[in-house]
Amino acid sequence: MNFKRILLKLSGEALMGERSYGIDPERINEYAEEIKQIYNQKTEIAIVIGGGNIFRGVSGSSQGIDRVQADYMGMLATVINGLALQSALENVGVPTRLQTALKIEAVAEPYIKRKAVRHLEKNRVVIFSAGTGNPFFTTDSAAVLRAVEINADVILKGTRVDGIYNDDPEKNKEAVKFDSLSFEDVLKKGLKIMDTTAFTLSQENKLPIIVFDMNTKGNLTRVVRGENIGTKVDL
Asked: What is the full DSSP assignment across 141-210?
C-alpha cells in the first residue's frame, strides 16, 4: 500500500549527525535526498522538525528560565531547523513552503490549514515549524495535530533506531523489537513513543504511526511504499 499524503516527524537531534550541537550539513543534505525520492513518486509530504539540537524548552526551564519563555525559545529553534531543511530541499530541486505557528512573516508563511493543503495538492513540500504555537506542547503533539488537520494517511516518525523495542536498544542488546503494535498494546506495555497528549490525539483520530530508522538510506522510500520497515502502531 502506498501512502498518498504523509507527515514526516524528525527530531532536532537527528540533524546533528555526529556533532554534539547544531546542524550537520551532510546529514541534512542526506535527508533532503531521501525526501526527494518520495517527492518524485508524487507523495504529498508535510514535515515537522523538533528543535532539540539547538534548544529544548524543558531543559531550559530546568536551568532557571521561565518555562513559557523556554518553550518559545524552543519553538524558534524549530524555525531555524525548518529554514535549514527548506534550503536543503530547494537545493535538490524540491519546491517547499515553510509555515510557522508563530507569525514571523519575514521568513515564513503563518500556518493556515487551507493554504497548507493547497500547497500539498500543488506538489510542494510543506514544513511546519514553531510547534503548535503554544507553550507546554511538544513537537510530537504539533506533528499529530497537523497530520490530523491536513488529513495525512500516516505519521512517519524518523529516528536513529529501527523501530519500537521493549527496552532501549542502544543500552540493552537483548531488547526485543516489535513489528506491529496496537495503540492499546503501547499503553499496556508502557512504551514511550510520543508524549501522552500526542499519542492520545493520534489514537482518537485513528491515525497510524510508523517508527523507523531514518538514517538508513532508502528506508523512507520503503516505508512510503508500504514495506514492513520499522514498527507500525495502529488500531
From this structure: HHHHHHHHHTT-SEEEEEESSSSEESS-TTT-TT--EESEEEHHHHHHHT--SS-HHHHHHHHHTT--EE
